């Protein structure tokens, strides 16, 4: 099903490409927040299991994907500004639920800390409050590639680290995407990495105390960069949280194999469509296929 596309203008400053996957029978809407270097295309398979149950909203940040042609991209955008854009889209589309992936979770948590009244629950995937040794190595190497605008090196770094468990076809898609961005996108990501390193996780961890809705954290059991063990430290800061670990999955939990796709689907729908209870979610395993960056 083709989405309805629109450019949403925010504060007369940014123009954001949006995609709305409507479901005539759905009463609720979920918005998905991209990870770094990603576009709406990275959620192609996620939409397949969410759209039968919800209206689904995707968007590209002003500097990326189908938004960048509508913005001058002469200034870097902070994670705080991304959070503000997200809050605007939540109101515009009357969103009930939120799902974020990887570093998109920084702006997502900053937005949730402002307690948007419409949001009932949120799912945070492939993210943790700890910058562990593998992640620090990845970010440090990424800083060098991004500042040099070394396109091929960026593609190789992503596939050799967080994307190492992706099927070879998807690694080729990843490399093609990551090595063909505009210069401002690499420099924007360099700015974000520098900002995240300076945050040292305090800003988005401390803000969790303000989040007043149930949260589900999903991580792959093979993901050494945002590990399931590290993610459980969120329990020290969030009022109401659950955790799900996807078997035999790395960073791209619903992309790497069929079982990961189905297990992620079951974890998300089980959380979003039932009353939240504190504890650890234990989804079952099943089947799939996909692409993301």
How is this structure best described in words?
It holds the Pfam family Abhydrolase_1. This is (R)-3-hydroxydecanoyl-ACP--CoA transacylase. InterPro entries: AB_hydrolase_1, AB_hydrolase_fold, Carboxylesterase_BioH. Residues 29-253 form the AB hydrolase-1 domain. By secondary structure, this protein is α/β, with parallel strands linked by helices. The chain has a single domain (4-131, 200-280), classed as Alpha/Beta hydrolase fold, catalytic domain (Rossmann fold). The protein has ten helices and nine strands. The protein has helices at 44-50, 79-92, 104-112, 133-147, 151-160, 168-178, 183-199, 202-206, 228-231, 258-272; strands at residues 4-10, 14-21, 29-33, 55-59, 97-101, 121-125, 215-220, 241-246, 279-280. The chain has a nine-stranded mixed beta sheet, sandwiched between helices. Strand 7 (215-220), helix 9 and strand 8 form a beta-alpha-beta unit. Helix 4 (133-147) runs antiparallel to helix 5 (151-160). The radius of gyration is 17 Å and the shape is globular. The two termini are 22 Å apart. The relative contact order is 0.14.
């Amino acid at each position: 099903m083709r989405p309805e596309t629109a450019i949403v203008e925010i504060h007369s400053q940014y123009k954001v490409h949006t995609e709305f996957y409507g479901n005539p029978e759905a009463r609720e809407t979920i918005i998905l927040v991209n990870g770094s270097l990603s576009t709406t295309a990275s959620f192609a398979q996620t939409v397949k299991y969410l759209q039968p149950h919800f209206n689904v909203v995707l968007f590209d940040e002003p500097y990326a994907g189908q938004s960048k042609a509508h913005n001058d991209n002469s200034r870097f955008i902070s994670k705080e500004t991304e959070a503000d854009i997200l809050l605007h889209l939540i109101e515009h589309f009357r969103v009930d639920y939120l799902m974020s992936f990887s570093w998109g979770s920084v702006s997502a948590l900053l937005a949730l800390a402002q307690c948007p009244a419409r949001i009932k629950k949120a799912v945070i995937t492939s993210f943790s409050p700890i910058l562990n040794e593998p992640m620090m190595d990845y970010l440090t190497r990424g800083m060098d590639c991004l500042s040099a605008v070394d396109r091929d090196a960026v593609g190789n770094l992503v596939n050799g680290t967080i994307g190492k468990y992706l099927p070879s076809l998807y690694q080729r898609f990843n490399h093609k995407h990551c090595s063909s961005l505009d210069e401002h996108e690499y420099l924007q990501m360099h700015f974000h990495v520098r900002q995240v390193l300076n945050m040292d996780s305090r800003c988005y961890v401390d803000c969790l105390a303000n989040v007043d809705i149930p949260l589900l954290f999903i991580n792959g059991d093979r993901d050494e960069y945002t590990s399931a063990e590290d993610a459980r430290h969120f329990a020290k800061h969030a009022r109401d949280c659950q955790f799900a670990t996807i078997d035999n999955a790395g960073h791209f939990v619903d992309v790497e194999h069929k079982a990961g796709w189905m297990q992620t689907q079951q974890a998300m729908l089980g959380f979003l469509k039932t009353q939240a209870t504190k504890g650890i979610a234990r989804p079952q395993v099943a089947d799939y296929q996909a692409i993301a960056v």
